[in-house]
Design a protein that fits this description.
There is one protein chain. This protein has one domain: Rossmann fold (3-Layer(aba) Sandwich), CATH 3.40.50.150. It is α/β, with parallel strands linked by helices. The termini are far apart. It is globular, with a radius of gyration of 20 Å. The strands form two sheets. The protein has an eight-stranded mixed β-sheet with strand order 4-5-3-2-6-7-10-9, with helices on both faces. A two-stranded parallel ribbon has the order 1-8. Helix content is 42%, strand content 21%. Helix 7 packs across helix 9, helix 8 crosses helix 12 and helix 10 crosses helix 12. It contains twelve helices and ten strands. Helix 7 links the parallel strand 6 and strand 7.
Length: 309
């Protein structure tokens, strides 16, 4: 195993801007996401949302809405009055979300729901400053440059507006990620793109991102969920169908994808034989905060000239 060769391969990919896009994995997982991910991790998403008040008449922005699991709860809390503006980069996930939470045109004392396809930061840049009461980011801030995304969130929030982030922690699925690292170190040519994810070490890391963006911090906590996968095949199926392997398809030589999966299964089988069980923990963080109530709407920052005012 040569980590030096892997590091050299990663550097070449970085210099050539060969970055893996997670969209293909989420498209592939979209039909099964509510069977695999939502029943296991969805309750943690709902618990995170419960830590910020969503009241009738609010304007709520949801970034990376996925299959609409949280979107449906936001709509329920608005009780027929307010606005939901949701965005996701995956057409497959959005198709499921739109079937679950159909768009609504809105109007006086009624509910407006819009689900758009696109990038989170670009979506925020197209919104007026000081226009949102709540911003929700579920399992997706890692796909951005977090301080920059949070600065955009601060811009679109009204004074006193709230934000909640729930995100996978960097040590999640440790046995699996260690196995992947060994596979790529043994044969760096398997890696054809870099998965760029900013997974936080802990809740304190996300809290620092909040502070850097000018947001206060109200809640910061850690969580962990054992994944219901007890055999190597179960693990591979779960990561593929839950979206946990987002970026894998674009990061691995497509002609040898099954070879990589077989080596993952073999490594997990060794771990199972040695330890007698496969306990994969999906660790995560929840951080909530707000834009200070006495702060006027921020002036446009560099790079936000396309935002409407």
């Amino acid at each position: 195993m040569s980590r030096a060769r892997l590091a050299a391969r990663a550097l070449r990919l970085a210099l050539s801007r060969s970055h893996a896009d997670p969209t293909a994995d989420y498209n592939a997982a979209s039909e099964d996401y509510d069977t695999y991910f939502s029943p296991v991790m969805g309750r943690h998403s709902l618990a995170a949302l419960a830590e910020v008040p969503v009241t009738p008449g609010d304007t709520v922005i949801e970034l990376a809405c996925g299959t609409g699991h949280l979107t449906a709860e936001i709509v329920r809390r608005l009780e027929g009055r307010g606005t939901v503006l949701a965005v996701d980069k995956s057409p497959g996930m959005l198709a499921v979300a739109r079937a679950k939470v159909p768009p609504r045109p809105g109007g006086r004392d009624s509910l407006r729901v819009e689900l758009s396809e696109g990038d989170m930061e670009s979506f925020l840049q197209g919104l007026p400053r000081g226009s949102a009461d709540v911003v929700v980011v579920g399992w997706a801030i890692c796909y951005s440059k977090p301080p920059r995304l949070l600065a955009q969130i601060e811009r679109v929030l009204r004074p006193g507006g709230r934000v909640v982030v729930i995100e996978t922690r960097a040590d999640a699925h440790k046995a699996l990620t260690e196995r992947l690292e060994r596979i790529f170190a043994d044969d760096p040519t398997l890696l054809t793109g870099l998965v760029r994810v900013a997974l936080p070490k802990d809740a304190a890391t996300v809290a620092r991102w909040f502070t850097k963006a000018g947001l206060t911090v109200a809640v910061r906590r850690e969580g962990s969920q054992v994944i219901p996968a007890h055999t190597p095949e179960d693990v591979v199926e779960w990561i593929q169908r839950s979206g946990a392997a987002a970026g894998f398809k674009d990061a691995v030589d497509s002609a040898r994808e099954e070879q990589v999966l077989d080596r993952i299964r073999a490594g997990l089988a060794q771990l199972l034989a040695r330890e007698g069980r496969l306990d994969l923990h999906h660790t995560f963080v929840v951080v909530t905060g707000a834009k200070p109530a006495d702060r006027p709407a921020a002036a446009p920052r560099a790079g936000t000239s396309g935002a409407r005012t």
